[in-house]
Every structure is written in C-alpha cells, then in structure tokens.
Amino acid sequence: MQNVSSRGTGHAVTAGFLGWTLDAFDFFVVIFLYDVLAAQFHVEKSAIIWTTTATLAFRPVGALIFGMLADRYGRRMPLIANVIYFSAIEVACGFAPNYKTFLVLRCLYGIGMGGEWGVGASLAMEHAPRKWRGLLSGILQSGYSIGYLLAALAYRFVLPTWGWRSMFWLGAVPALLALYIRTKVPESEAWKQNRAASTSQVLRAVFGQWPRFIYLVILMTFMMFLSHGTQDLFPDFLKEIHKITPRVVANIAIFYNVGAVVGAIIFGFASQALGRRKGMMAALALSLVTIPFWAFGHGIYALACAAFVMQMGVQGAWGVIPVHLNEMSADVARGLMPGLAYQLGILFASPTNSVQYLLRDHVGYQWAIAGFEIVTIVTLAVLLLCGTEQHGKDFTHA
Q1: Distance from the CA of 306 to the CA of which of 208, 258, 384, 394 falls in 20 to 30 A?
Q2: pTM of the model
Q3: Exposure pattern of 198-216 as b/e (b: 16+ CB <10 Å)?
C-alpha cells in the first residue's frame, strides 16, 4: 500500500511540476522576443510588453473556472482540460498574422495559465506527505524557473535556426502531459473526503474566510511584484544598459534560472523546519542584499553571478508558496482558493512590466528595477511578520 501511495505522490508532483514548467515556458517565450515581435508586427516594443500584461490580467479568469471545476469534479480532469487548452492557444500564437490577433491569443492564453497553477498545486500538495511538503513545494514551484530556462534555450538555439513562430509551435509539447495525467496520476484522496456538494458551497467557503483570503491576495500581489519585477524586463535591461548580445543574454538567463531552481528547493525544504513565513523571509533577505550588485554591477560575469543569487532569493521565497497557500485554504475549496488568490495577485500586479518600463524614462533603468524591488521586499517582510500560517495542516481531516 505504501508503494502505491509513494508512486501516487511521485506522479502527482511530477504532473504539477511539468504542467507549471511547460506553462511558464509558453509565457516566457514572449519576453525574449520583444524586439523581434515589435518588428514583425510593426508596433512599438511597449505594445509587445503590454501583451504580457494582458496575459497576466486574464489569469484570474482561468483560476476561477478551473478551480471551481477542480473542487466539484476532482483535480485530474480539469487539469487535463487545462493542459490541452493552453497548448492549443500557444500553438495558435505561432500563426498570428498581426498584432491584434496576437494580443487576443495572449489574453486567451492567460486563462489557461491562470488555471494550471491552482489545480496542479492542490493535486501535488494533497498527495504529499506532511513531512515532505516543504521540499516538494519547492520542487513544484521550481518548474516555473525551469520553464524560463527552457524559453532561454529556445531563444538561444531555436530562434536563429527556425524563427520566432517555431518557438510558439513548441507549445504543442505540453499536450502530451495530458496523456500522462490520464494514465498515471491518481485522484486526490483529500478531495474525495472533502468534496463540495455544490459550487455555491465552494464559493461560501472562500468568502466565509474573507479576511484571510484578502490577506493572501495582497501577499500574492507583492510576490508577483517580486518575481515579474526581477525577471520579465531583465533580459531587455541587459541588452539596453550593458549592450550584451542576445546570445550572451540567453546564457545569463539560463544561468540565473539554475539559481532560481536551487533557491526554490533549498528554501522550500528550509520552511519545513523554520516555518513557512520565516523560510520566506530568509529568502527575501538574500535578495535584498543582492540588489546593489544585481542592478548596478558591471561586467558580464559579475552581473550573471548577482542575477544567480538574486533569483535564488526570489524563487526561494516562491518555493514556499504552493504549500503555504494550500495549508491556509479551506478544505472544501483547495482547488479554487489558492489559485484564485494567486491569480488575483497577478491581476493587480499585471502592470509591473509597463510601470517599470515607464519608470525607466524618469529615473533610469537601474533605479527603476532596483527601487521597485526594494519597496516590494520591505513590504513583503511586513506582511509576513503580520501574517499567520498553518504549518503541517491535515488535508484529509474534514
């Protein structure tokens, strides 16, 4: 019985990890193509940056749709439907004939991206043994950085050979994950024991804990400021300020995403002993002291090392998020509540790229990213100090 349970845990975490990896890849492809797409569609670069804002803004729609389905009908089938949906939209982006079509497709893609995290995270965390939740949370969330890394590899090797459209056509690969989930991943026992009788029961459970839900949304808003504020414009920052060639930028992005993976796993594991909030604060402290070297450093190697450590801290804090949000959520609404809080946070933080890009015109690129992140990290520290946690909560107890 233990072997069956262990295999179920492994398959569930693998499905969540791969789903988030491939979802992130599909998102981050765009950030490497700002200049290419602007030239292709004959628009300003700011218009392409706006498409990432639109993608992020539509993510709560997906969290609401797929999260409610997951609480009513189980985690597996909504996750399968989600993977097929976002794969199809990503492939369609590679056929976009003009900017308006591309923008609409990126909005539709945002719905799929918004649905994957909440369902995949609840499936993985409900299968995870309590003593390993922190570590598995870090592994799960590291999929985001692996997706970014894969996008950098595609930029480095696929774009020069096959062009920008082929980078989106690679989005067909995630559809194979649906077959894996269908054949290997068992349904969550926690969901079976706490299954909602109706959609209204799920919604009542979320709004019945509205102070906690609002707190989680605010926390996630600033966590989005942290991640997207340090990642989405950084390749462009390296090219514009330091005149680094696209090939070297891709190599640096690959390198600092290795740091992100390491950080997510280390601090996710540390949160099992330190507690969720202290684990996150330790990661935030690492990022804060790295900002001067990350934003104002000189030289390719120094910048690459600073970016590596910066993302260790950023994604180290993020590595705790899957388990923290699932432990803080109502049993009957664990498919909806973590994902909706997560994606509402991204909705409110969706202008991050555009705001930083505007700040660049007033205070310079370096202070635009550095100042934005200093305020973000300090605010996050206050939120965590004032917050609470439910470390080791029993998911199967109704």
Answers
A1: 384
A2: 0.86
A3: eeeebbebbeebeebbebb
